[in-house]
Amino acid sequence: MSDFTWAAKANDIPSGEGRVCEVNGVAIALFNVDGTFHALDNTCIHRGGPLGDGICTDGTVTCPWHGWEYSMTTGECKGMPGQSVDTYEVRIEGEDIHIKL
User: Fold this and answer.
1) Digit-coded pLDDT (tens) for 62-71
2) Residues 77, 40 contacting (CB under 8 angstroms)
3) Span 4-100: which CATH code?
């Protein structure tokens, strides 16, 4: 698991919520969707809003600044086809969340 870095404790992110965590100096938006965790770049491509502070619904995160929406699985911006934020592979080991950058 050397490619993965510890990011957070699973029980610190309730289902339906997100958090911002820093992994190797990179701000990551980490979301819990019914026990499945998704990791995306924290910065909205529109105006740099913090996606980790956004609202997550039905596999989509909505930027809290201007409402741009992104798929949590692909990072694709729903209103701008071909535009996306980076997504990261997530592994759970016990209560620990690890992310591969």
Assistant:
1) 999 999 999 9
2) no
3) 2.102.10.10
